[in-house]
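To: structure desk
From: M.T.
Subject: fold request, one chain
Message: Could you run this one when you get a chance? Sequence is below, nothing fancy, just the single chain.
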Amino acid sequence: MVKNIVVAVDESEESMHACEWACKHLSAIETPKVIETTDIQQQQQQSYNMILIHVQSTASSVSAGPAYILSNQVFEFLDLEAKRNTQRVLNRALHICERYGVKAETHVVIGEAKEKICEAAAKLGAHLLVVGSHGHGGFIRAIRGSVSDYCTRNSKCPVVVVNKKVFSG
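Reply: Done. Structure tokens follow.
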């Protein structure tokens, strides 16, 4: 049975560290299965699916404040920038996977990160969810809420939270 490993990535260093942690640890325990395609050819297959997920914000989620009304052109620009940012994030994460020889697919969802990560992990049949921890203090967590805390409480699969101490030398 192939396991689905979902890694949530965003523009933060912490999420890229989580991606690297997943690649490093999964490739270390990987015992590639060899599939015979012909008598001459053999192909190696990962025993897991690595799925990189990015939650893209929408222009409508940008708060301009009570005194501003954003034009359609501004919304279009913000949507275009969000799509460009998504592509940068996923390309960076895919590059990390390539360095470890891990094949990965990508998924983009739109909305509130903590909720959409858990929803997507469930829809994708995740056996494991890997997220990075930004390491914000209690005050920021109290105001904004922690994505990693939310995921550990609400995910339908085990969650690994990779913090910056794992990568500090």
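Reply (cont.): The beta strands are 3-8, 33-36, 42-45, 48-56, 104-110, 128-132, 159-162. Let me know if you need anything else for the meeting.
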